[in-house]
Design goal:
Structural class: alpha/beta
Number of strands: 15
Helix content: 25-40%
CATH class of the largest domain: Alpha Beta
Order of helices and strands: EEEHEEEEHEHEHEHEHEHEHHEHE
Radius of gyration: 20 Å
Oligomer: single chain
Number of helices: 10
Shape: globular
Strand content: 25-35%
């Protein structure tokens, strides 16, 4: 047994604290696979966990980090052997099970998926839960029967992790993409990713009408609240919006009008407990469809030591695209 570097979150009478510590192997939680973590990433949920601004963490002490990529060190699970390269997204890791902001993790082998052929571990974390969620959203729209011939697709929070990858994926799939962002200075970057049009998020973030002009056939929304309500109100007949986030809020101040007058559908997208076959399908599509140059253009690589600052910055809307943390 030994120790390894990790971020630990504690909650006590003195308050909520996240700090780097040396964690003991003996204190790892139950699991049948031990992984040497080489890369992690920064998601909105990680920001909430590190700062305590939302009750994401439900067990203390906790190592945050809902994502990691690494190399199997030990395994009693027949699906994995030492040396295998693996990815983990979700399953309560970083919330109820010790997570990826550490040099080592012990988890259930059933939670892992292989790093797809053609991707490095660093690229897998450049995609991370954000990109994997974006692909789940695209798959949901496709499975609903929507096609680019039906009209444009809108992406909210387009400068963020989910949004930026959703823009690239939808454009690759043939959609005319409208990108909604609060950072107009990123318009040229979003167009380079594939957006045909960039609009200000203020067009959608305030209370709106129950039913508006039909502007798009599909949407990927990581914002929620009034933004999602306005997306639904302006979705064309038979269209759908995939909802996967709550950056503006958990509420949905909408009416039934889009549903009963236009047959609009709201598709819920969950990345945490998503069944393994759907995860595998999403990662396979990401490996084949996501342009490596575009992925690189939306990715910043940072040392593990910067994880706390990056987690705070993502809540402030100060991060463009994705941040990969080099853990090893």
């Amino acid at each position: 047994m030994g120790t390894f570097k990790a971020i630990r979150i504690d909650k006590s009478e003195a308050g909520y604290q996240a700090a780097f510590v040396y964690f003991d192997d003996a204190d790892l939680m139950d699991g049948d696979v031990t992984v040497r973590v080489t890369h992690s990433t920064v998601n909105y949920k990680d920001g909430l966990a590190v700062t305590g601004k939302s009750p994401v963490v439900r067990r203390f002490p906790m190592i945050p980090g809902i994502d990691f990529a690494g190399i199997v060190e030990e395994s009693s699970n027949p699906a994995w052997k030492p040396g295998d390269e693996v990815i983990l997204n979700g399953w309560g890791v970083g919330e109820t099970h010790l997570g990826g902001y550490a040099q080592k993790a012990r988890v259930k082998g059933d939670w892992l998926v292989p790093v797809p052929k053609g991707l490095t571990r660093a690229q897998a974390m450049a995609i991370g839960t954000a990109g994997y969620t974006a692909m789940l959203s695209l798959l949901a729209l496709e499975q609903h029967g929507l096609t680019p011939a039906m009209g444009p697709a809108i992406v909210t929070g387009a400068s963020g992790g989910v949004g930026s990858i959703a823009v690239a994926l939808l454009a690759k799939a043939g959609w005319r993409v409208i990108a909604s962002t609060g950072r107009p200075q990123e318009a040229d970057w979003l167009k380079a990713l594939g957006a045909a049009e960039v609009i200000d998020r203020n067009e959608l973030s305030a209370p709106g009408r129950p039913l508006g002009k039909e502007r798009w056939a599909a949407g990927v929304d990581s914002v929620g609240s009034h933004t999602l309500a306005n997306l639904l109100a302006q979705t064309g007949y038979g269209g759908a919006v995939a909802a996967c986030g709550l950056a503006q809020g958990m509420d949905l101040p909408a009416s039934v009008a889009p549903f009963i007058l236009r047959g609009v559908s709201l598709l819920g997208v969950d990345s945490v407990m998503c069944p393994k076959p759907r995860r595998m399908a999403a990662w396979a599509r990401l490996a084949s469809d996501l342009d490596a140059d575009k992925l690189a253009s939306l990715t910043t690589t940072a040392p593990f030591a910067s994880a706390l600052d990056s987690a705070r910055s993502i809540l402030e809307g100060a991060i463009r695209g994705r941040v990969v943390l080099e853990i090893g």
